[in-house]
Amino acid sequence: MKRMKRMKDLDLRHIDLKRLDIKCWKNILRNCPYLIVLIITWLFMTVGGILLMLYRDYSGFKPDAFWTQPFFAVIMETEMNDGINSVVQTGNQAQEALALLKESDDRSGWMFAGISGVIYDSTKDYIAKAEAAKEEEINEPAADEVVGQTLFTTYEPHEIDSIYYSDAGKVALTTEYPYVKVEEDYFDDAIFFGDSRTLGISDYSGLNADFYCENGMTIYKLLDEKGVVCQATGERDDLNQVLQQKKYGKIYIMLGMNELGYRDTAYFLEQYAAVLLQLREWQPEAVIYLQANLHVSREKNNIKTEFNNININDKNAAIATLADGKGIFYLDVNPLFTDSEGYLNGDLTFDGVHLFAQGYMTWRDFLMEHAVVVEED
Amino acid sequence: MLFSSIEFLFRFLPVFMLIYLLVPEKYRNFVLLSGSLVFYGVGEPYYVLLLVFSILINYGLGRLILNDKLIEYKLPFLVFTLIVDFGLLFIFKYQNFVVENINKLVSYEAIPVLDLVLPLGISFYTFQTVSYLIDCYRGKIKKAPSLIEFAVYVSMFPQLIAGPIVKFDEVSEKLKKRRISAGGLENGLKRFSIGLGYKVLLANQIGTLWNTIMTAGAGNLSAPVAWLGAFAYSFQIYFDFWGYSLMAKGLGEMLGFRLPKNFDNPYASKSISEFWRRWHITLGRWFKEYLYIPMGGNRKGFVRTSFNLLIVWAFTGLWHGAGWNFLLWGLAFFVIISIEKSGIGKWLEKSKILGHIYVIAVIPITWVIFAITDIGQLGMYLQNMFGIHTGNVMVGNTQLFRYIKEYGVLFILCMIFATPYPMRLYRGYKNRWLVILIVAAVFWFSVYEIMVGSNNPFLYFRF
């Protein structure tokens, strides 16, 4: 290790461009090795970033965000956005998948609830509706071939100026179905996919299911070969393998929060549908539950950003259209935890986003009361 | 704009430094002032006017206090400025809190709540202007500086938002004439990078553990988990604040200033009194010089000394935030330090290990009081720390082991960097290539972490 030889420290009265001679530069070079290292690395990365942008179609970089995104961001982004760029299916395939889901009523178990479901007229208090819907469920006798319906309450949508979402103008309710109450062993052959909220279920509900979830998980990354953390082992497993090796009876999905600020809801729906189609292919007999994303509290609700309940509801309403009432059900826990305006109740949360540990017990009870039991032939 | 943001690091700072270095010396203050106003104005487009108003009125009144012809009005001028300065601070920082509590007391909305957003850095710059005026009044400052020098003193961006609270005489000479050297640029930049690393790589990371634990609920924790959380928060706030102070000092060095030291390895203290001599040094100094000693300090007998301490600690608590928990936090220090004054403190400071154990056990408890603004939650958390539970323990050993597995390495790093040794080592070898490369790596890794967090705002929330 060579010790740096220090020259007489240069006094920069000011850098006079006219008097900048070789000696002055030498002095700066000798005295500021750290500054030089930073500038050189920055130069390399910037050039690299620009080249990367030129040589491949890079969608993650927003040229309008000059203030917050230097060119070298491209290099750093590649790593984090890999998951987002290499989605399960390319855009076209995903669109086809969605089209397939919407059109093929005759394909067993596939129906587009958004078309077949009844759409109620405007009622503001959708909780009351949810209660009513719940009572109906209880009164309705179980028929031989029961097809659940996913209902929506509609309201006057707000004007939203955002590239990420619009106001859906409707709230999806839990799929109507004669659910039965089950015990905890129901979940022994269940698998849960989700983000940090599902992590909460994994941590505090005490359910003995397979939990594949992690902070920041998105529908785009779910089936990525990088895998998802299995909570039982703490290891990352590729779900492509997991789902082809083990047969599950129930699949619970809750994703959409970390997607709020990436592309729009239509894209989100396409990708979600594509994932769903893939899951169905691998697990043709599993009951699939699509869980609504939990709303956020009044304090966390930020209408100026993408992070608000209107956006969450937009995503939820989109998800609900994929429920067919036969093999795919939409479950909305929000009425259990939100106030009359739909905000997550402030007493149930520290950060306005996640429930306190005990909240997941209520959640667990809700899932146990909303179970579909498939009779085996 | 925050130091740990891409806008600051790659837009504001390089452009500003280039202009600052290229302009002739006599324009430097002007460049620094304009730069600082831009720095502040980007984040606070309206409150920048408040800052300008504060600078102008304090400067004007300072001149009046220093005017020999008006010497008999010195005191009224001072009182007036104090009313204006603390009045603004009260309106923007404490008025919400006071009004809400009065309304709660009479149980209807007797006084309307204004709901003002706290202007960034107002607590810091108000304390600076007040110290300047009192120093003028006391004759420590004899000749008024030029308006631009005063404006730079109050607003210069390295210390505007989070201190250190600089006294005018510490920088008065440099405000007139300062030497900017290649060495200062180099060392300042290195110091800045280290501070950035502390903030982004240690504080932010360990902070997620504290958040995770609080998210699970303050009343649900087993005692070990509650303590683990308290330690995590203690490290978070230390590296956050110390990192910021290092960045400020580094930037000051780059600009040709010498800003005062704000932290001196506080967690290596052996008593709480010593802790406060090493934690946020410039704030403690302010309260001592401008409140404690003018009230009589410890020269007026036991009862009066205790009363003075009580006032100082109550205000120290409230300075950190308008909330009951901050008052409680300040008063906790009053109690602890009063007890230490009986002689236990001196004895602990002489001890080899006992003092350290004592500080390491007490400080996390005080930080919990600081961190949890909701008194109900605070009570539950403190009970949990001592194994008292009103409900079920939901976060127990399973989570504890997972947290240790996940954060163990980070904890060890935090412990190492909370001792004086790493910085001592750095000072000894800071011009070696190896050290230079390590610091550069720290810088880029911090930048990477900031990028990952900021370009998709929701990754930052980390659901």
Architecture overview:
The complex is a heterodimer of chains A (377) and B (463). Chain A is α/β, with parallel strands linked by helices and 377 residues long. Chain A has 2 domains: 17-85, no CATH class; 91-369, Rossmann fold (3-Layer(aba) Sandwich), CATH 3.40.50. Helix content of chain A is 37%, strand content 9%. Chain A has helices spanning 22-31, 33-55, 73-85, 91-103, 113-116, 126-139, 196-204, 239-245, 265-282, 309-320, 334-337, 359-369; strands spanning 152-154, 170-172, 190-194, 210-213, 228-229, 236-237, 250-254, 287-291, 328-331. In chain A, the strands form 3 sheets. In chain A, strands 4-3-7-8-9 form a 5-stranded parallel β-sheet, sandwiched between helices. In chain A, helix 4 (91-103) crosses helix 9 (265-282) and helix 9 (265-282) packs across helix 10. Chain A is elongated. The N and C termini of chain A lie far apart (76 Å). Chain B folds into 2 domains: 6-178, no CATH class; 184-270 and 351-461, no CATH class. In chain B, helix 1 (6-22) runs antiparallel to helix 2 (28-43) and helix 10 (223-255) crosses helix 16 (375-385). With 463 residues, chain B is an all-alpha fold. Chain B contains 20 helices and no strands. Classes of the chains: A alpha/beta (377), B mainly alpha (463). At the A-B interface, helix 1, helix 2, helix 3 and helix 7 of A face helix 1, helix 9, helix 17, helix 19 and helix 20 of B.
Task: Briefly summarize what is shown.
By secondary structure, chain A is α/β, with parallel strands linked by helices.
Q: Percentage of helical residues of chain B?
A: over 70%
* N-to-C order of helices and strands of chain B: HHHHHHHHHHHHHHHHHHHH
- Here the CATH topology of the largest domain in chain A equals Rossmann fold
- Quickly give the structural class of chain B: mainly alpha
How is the main sheet of chain B built? none
Number of domains of chain A: 2
Helix content of chain A: 25-40%
Q: Taking all residues together, what is the mean pLDDT of chain B?
A: 88
Radius of gyration of chain B: 23 Å
End-to-end C-alpha gap of chain B: 25 Å
Please count the beta strands of chain B (DSSP E, at least 2 residues each). Answer: 0
Describe the strand arrangement of the main beta sheet of chain A, using strand numbers.
4-3-7-8-9
How many structural units, i.e. domains of chain B? Answer: 2
Shape type of chain A = elongated
Give the C-alpha Rg of chain A: 26 Å
Percent of residues in beta strands of chain A: 5-15%
Name given to the CATH homologous superfamily of the largest domain in chain A = SGNH hydrolase
